[in-house]
Amino acid sequence: MNLPGVLDDLRKIVGRDAVLDRPEDLMLYEYDAGIRKSTPGAVVFPTNTQQVSDIMRLASANHIPVVGRGAGTGLSGGSISQAGGLVIAFSRMNRILEVDVENARAVVQPGVVNLQLSEHVSHLGLYFAPDPSSQKACTIGGNVAENSGGPHTLLHGVTVNHVTGVEVVLPSGEIVQFGGKAAESYGYDLTGFFVGSEGTVGITTAITVKLLPKAEQVATLLGVFESVDDAARTVSAITAVGITPAALEMLDGWTLRTIEAFCHAGFPLDAGAVLLIELEGLREAVEEQAVAVNEVCMRQKAREVRRAKTEDERALLWKGRKMAFAALGRVSPSYYTQDGVVPRSQIPGVLQHIGDVGKKYDLIIGNVFHAGDGNLHPLILFDMRNAEQYERVLAASRDILQYCIDVGGSITGEHGVGMEKRDMMRQLFTDEELGVMISLRNAFNGDEVLNPEKMLPMPRMCREIMGASQNAVLAREGM
Amino acid sequence: MSTAATPVRFARELREICGVGHVIEDPATLEQARILGVTPAIAVEPASVEEVAAVLLFANENGLSVVPAGGFTQQQTGNTPNTIDVLLYTKRLTDVEHYDPGDLTIGIGAGCTVAQLLSKVAADGLLFAGDAPIPERATVGGLLATGMTGPLRHGYGGLRDYCIGIKFVTGDGRKGKGGGRVVKNVAGFDLMKLLIGSQGTLAIITGASFKLFPAPRQTRTFVAGFATAAEAIQYRDAVLRSPLSPMCLELVSPQAGALLPGGGRSGKVWSLYLRAAGSDAVLARYRSELGTAIALEIDGHNEYGVWRAIEDFSNILPERYPSSVLISLSLPLANVLPVPNELESVAVSNQLAYAAIGTVGVGRLLAGLWPAGEQANLGAAVSAFCKQLPRDASASILHCPEEMRRQSSAWAKTPTHSDSMKAVKHALDAKDILNRGRFLF
User: Fold this and answer.
1) B-chain residues within 8 Å CB-CB of A236?
2) Do residues B397 and B412 lie in contact, with contact meaning Cβ atoms separated by under 8 Å?
3) How close A410 gets to chain B, by Cα (Å)?
């Protein structure tokens, strides 16, 4: 790798004001919203697809690792450059290229902020459904890389369900198209494969997304429970009566009190847990569902069920949910967020386990999560300056994720594997299964120029664990 | 064409893998399993993922071509196979890996039929949304490999939207996995997406997990009639803009309507069949929103029959008109509008009759053409029709006369970069063992 040697060439591609290499500038790009850090060698700001292609061609020829970066709001280190490589920041590729109302599609550059797209098409009665909690800042390019979710993915699905086409720059610099404006295309679904590939297959420079019509009616209910256990049991009781809410979020008592002190969302301070339940659709259907959900909650020992009476009340409840992470910043110098998933029916058990883990490792752990689809976000509070405590946090985190795996779940529901959970992929997949994924990555990114040392465990590590492989194909993949 | 007139030299090894009773060498039985005129040299029925992997590793070592087979409902799709050295049935892979109705998920073997899956979850008031043609024979693996779902795609999405995990053996004999059994999961590549619709050319799917849905307690179908296709499609646009969220929304041409139960009823009109679910109040709202365009309401047994026929249309049309061509289209929504006119135009110019049916709310359309005169020219019509398709469209020929199949590709068009698809094929099946010659390249 010879990054300093190509800085002049990079400046020729993007202009002198679009390359950063001074240490004080690079510090801003050494982290994301997680806890890992690594300083890149340079940051470059292209403004168009051709520039991205030229950058990739240059980087590949010089074996310089490249990482795409949107807003740096990720939680798994996906946009952090390891080993002093090159960061391609997309803040100058932030245009909405096309709004195609007839086809219910928009074509956007990767640096478009998630919420801005919905705001841009709001006057047409349309919106972009994936709504990560960071949607005011995170970019659609980042959403595509990580296959991001959000509270409303319970009904509408995650990012991949809303992307029908991508323009991609391959490591060779070639610009290619996967899919388009049609919902599906014959041939391999490389669009679906690309979304969530965590920047290890190519870099997207234009994304075709679905725009959905806004619902006629939205009902936002707050179920107040005396205990976490009662709230947890209510989650599968709601789906058991045939209702799929648009969102079904849970906050435990400690977390809601912390949020309430921060932004006065209206959560009851003495509750054991609350469920934030949103129903949307046809007016008649939503009203019937609201009655049914109320009955289910009361049957499951809810103290009360409140319904937001105005749009302002609804917005306030959601503000409380989406500001949860920010609220924790007031009470702890650092926090570590996990993203495990369990089958819905396992929620009571996993919450009990998280409570036990907190006691075992002497840590405060809050819970605010997407209960409807079993996607947990335990928030472990700690002080980064306390090395011993930091080790306990990592051990507690592994303990929780191992429980998720043991009950049939996953280590990540929407934040991606990235750097931090890469080693735990071995708990989910066999070496042979990982080898299949590695060969697919290598089909596009064989030299690992793109986002090296992310998502999939390194072949060398595999070899150490496995010894010499008996399988010719595994051996070919370095496994 | 391959035949199995003499004992196959590798039969003994395959018997060691699958067991004596699960290797088929009888020529008459193999003849029954011919695909587009090509007879398999031998057939195997592995009972486990390990046996599938062993067969594929053996095929790799010996350069044998392998064609996976489920219920033989879609084997007429794709190009004619070069050879079929080994036909691999998935029928013994039927284990239920996980099922908890409270989780609304199920994991099941690829050889399970769609009807068995539907019946199993229906007992718990749940719905599997993969409404395959001929569900009694279609298997879960075949459904995934071909991506052939029906009208429920409008309300529940395609398989890519509710398949949450997949297990498979790659063409080069490796056991692979994507996703898992939870409804939200981004650990590793999304291999469900890659394998759905891959036509058995990358891997043999051995099992999959799915998100299930609460089954609707009451449904009703509203049929609206229009003098022209354009009016019907404009009405589709009005439905899509409305607050309504139907389960199904199907465009039916006059000729297609004639093949549905009670076909004479729709006369010479283009129809939109809209299926709604909900309480009496919800259905009343549909009635009020849909207005005077509604010519007919169907429920109960009749409704079931109509939707089964729509699901099976890709089978019904070729049975009625064996020399027909059936083209499956996936289009951006706005590009559906000109298709009926283009279809009529190529039909008239080439002495053909035509029918169209499709889930037009998501841009899916089946277009059928068949001879209606002595100078009928199906090849010219298909070629002219496909040339007019817009940039983002994709098309495949589901059915056509065997002679035409040998002369032209079944894959008319796709917007996705061809070399990238080839790179994926090479990564999982470098020796081109699986479904050799049947796909895009």
Assistant:
1) 102-103
2) yes
3) 6
- E-strand spans in A211-272? 212-213, 217-225, 247-252
How far is Cα A344 from Cα A225, in angstroms, rounded to an integer?
18
User: Are A126 and A214 within 8 A, CB to CB?
Assistant: yes
Ordered structural domains, chain B, with CATH: 1-215+415-441 (3.30.465.10), 219-311 (3.30.70.2190), 313-408 (3.30.70.2730)
Domain covering A217-315 in this structure, CATH number: 3.30.70.2190
* pLDDT < 50: residue spans in chain B: 1-5
What pairing do the DSSP bridges indicate for beta strands B43-44 and B86-89?
parallel
Non-local (6+) Cβ contacts of B344 within 8 A are: B354
A220 beta partners:
A278
End-to-end CA distance of chain A: 25
**What value, to the nearest 5°, has the Cα angle with vertex A136 and ends A133 and A141?**
85
Interface probe for B, chosen from A172, A184, A462 (most Cβ of B below 10 Å), is: A184
Quick one: tokens of B327? 């083209």
SS3 A279: strand
If you search the block for the tokens 């040697």, which residue do you land on?
A5
> Tell me, which fold does domain A332-406 have in CATH?
Alpha-Beta Plaits (3.30.70)
CATH of domain A96-213: 3.30.465.10
Identify the three-state secondary structure at position B311: helix
Beta strand extents in B331-393 (DSSP E only) = 352-358, 364-371
State the Cα–Cα distance between residues B165 and B177, nearest whole angstrom.
7
Long-range contacts of B372-375 (CB under 8 A, 24+ apart): B372/B347, B375/B350, B375/B351
CB contact under 8 A, B186 and A443: no
| Residues of B whose CB is below 8 A from A177 | 415-417
Cα B26 from Cα A398, distance rounded (Å): 55
CB contact under 8 A, B190 and A195: yes
Let me know the angle formed at the C-alpha of B103 by B102 and B109, rounded to the nearest 5 degrees.
115
- The band of A92, judged by pLDDT with boundaries at 50, 70 and 90, is very high
pLDDT digits (tens, 9 = 90+) for B294-305: 999 999 999 999
Cα–Cα dist B157/B193, whole Å: 13
* Helix (H), strand (E) at residue A275: strand A273-281
Round to whole Å and give the CA distance between B19 and B21. 6
pTM given for the model: 0.95
Q: Estimate to the nearest angstrom the gap between the alpha carbon of B50 and the chain centroid.
A: 27
**B332/A103 CB distance under 8 A:** yes
Q: Taking the domains of chain A in order of start, what are their residue ranges?
A: 3-89, 96-213, 217-315, 332-406, 429-476
DSSP string covering A149-216: --TTHHHH--GGGGEEEEEEE-TTS-EEEEE-SSS--SS--HHHHHTTSTTSS-EEEEEEEE-EEPPS
Across the A:B interface, residue pairs with CB atoms under 8 Å apart total: 274
Q: What is the 3-state secondary structure (H, E, C) of B204-251?
A: EEEEEEEECEECCCCEEEEEEEECCHHHHHHHHHHHHHCCCCCCEEEE
For A157-207, the pLDDT digits (tens) are: 999 999 999 999 999 999 999 999 999 999 999 999 999 999 999 999 999
Contacts of B125 in chain A (CB under 8 A): 242
- pLDDT the model gives residue A330: 85
| Interface residue B129 vs chain A (CB under 8 A) | no
